């Protein structure tokens, strides 16, 4: 099925209804300004390219940024630097001659697609980055589809052309095929192509040889292409103020900041404006502070004009999609609408026996307040009540988005109980439908058999297989989202860590039936205490161990993975009995296998339906939902009897 972008005529009709008051005003352009977003699949070099653009525009020198360790300046969060990915969309500005270029750096992960959709609301065109070796991947399709739906012009930038395994001509052809597959119109398909090495800070319009460097030694060609291919902001002369809130930030001195794109009119510091809320109500507010981005900093400004991207302070409860309008003639801009969530998990207070040992925020009120605060700036999240007053269901785009939220809360001092991720199902025409994913696997060709078997167990449907002739294959699948929960670890194990896995949400299909979850059971502690090396020595033959001597455990805590399919209760706190009898020869030394330490994502992937994750600032533990061993045994017995009778 070909995905069609929103037609131009449809957009004109929608615009005419909301902007009818502008029809008689003359249209003007701001030739001294360009607003562009950089979109791409994860790890194709967006943030590195922004770094190079900042360096060559003198932004770092102006702000005295120098020395090593200053790469990826746009990834300002600790979590972004640790994971090497962009999580939040951010904007910067560079000046080339008399023209200012506002650049929006967006995330590549589809899990953070809400950030991409907000970023596209600010701009008049996009630069689509594609890796010269990997080519278009699932999230390339996702971000490009969003740009085409908004009818934005595109510059195709083939990055990393100097990679030894680059295949530039084939990747350009694949990009054209992707545009056609997404239903691009004649104007959108006539895009300029730039060849670049963002790391080297070089770009050219001339196609280099595979593995070669671009001809030019700087990014001047890219800037020239931006000025020619990205249209200048358009506005109506004499129109009343309209500024669209597209993102939120905060300042320790100014409080909440609303990041806005000025659509019409002029906004000034100290001005009285009408704040049009999401429910349609209006309130008169004062702009206490007005900031404009210059390179890496926000600087105070007295006024801003159409096309400018600004930060406004003084409105404490303003949220996304709302409008700042003229007091005499207020008109609302359309609300920002994003894709629905596809994955959910429960988040609640920590109810384990070891709760309160390392965290400072433990109560249900604090957890709910933090989740509500996250909703203010994250349009792609939903928080729903559950049967328990201290637990909430959080819905998002994917496992990574939810895991990042929990990781941020953990670093803020929260202690939480997090349930296993589940898919968000829908009823369509009376039948249950589940979310699907478009999955792309790159792996050495010797793993084709095992990968086909793994995907068959998860109800995956192969749509394409390509052998590049380099010893690597690419497999394209359409697979239920729940089949990919916990799949990454098994995939990396089977491909010996060499495989690459990328997936993106791709609509709903009828329920595909039962899917096999983890084939192994859990080793579960049967009592509270401190782990001893003597007890672990007798347990490690049963499977992989997650704890080490000295760790605190409690009844119902998962201390390892059983090699068999059923769970096993073990005593991991047993101590060696001492006697006054000497053993003949030397005592047997206890040689322990190093434990398998699970991080947040690993713990969520490992969980089964009857397990959850205990998250504290100091440690991440996996535990049974029901801690008492006798109650678990009775529940298992009842489930077996029910299966036999049915």
Brief account:
This protein has 646 residues and is α+β, with helices and mostly antiparallel strands. It is built from 16 helices and 37 strands.
Q: How does this structure look, described?
A:
This protein has 646 residues and is α+β, with helices and mostly antiparallel strands. The chain is 24% helix and 31% strand.
Task: Give the tags.
646 residues; alpha+beta; eleven-stranded mixed sheet; eight-stranded antiparallel sheet
End-to-end separation: 40 Å
* Average residue-wise pLDDT: 82
User: Total number of β-strand segments?
Assistant: 37
Largest sheet: 11 strands, mixed
How big is the Rg? 28 Å
The helix content, as a percent range, equals: 10-25%
Q: Work out the strand percent.
A: 25-35%
Shape assignment? globular
Q: List unreliable stretches of 5+ residues.
A: 1-17, 62-70, 72-77
Helix run count = 16
Structural class: alpha+beta
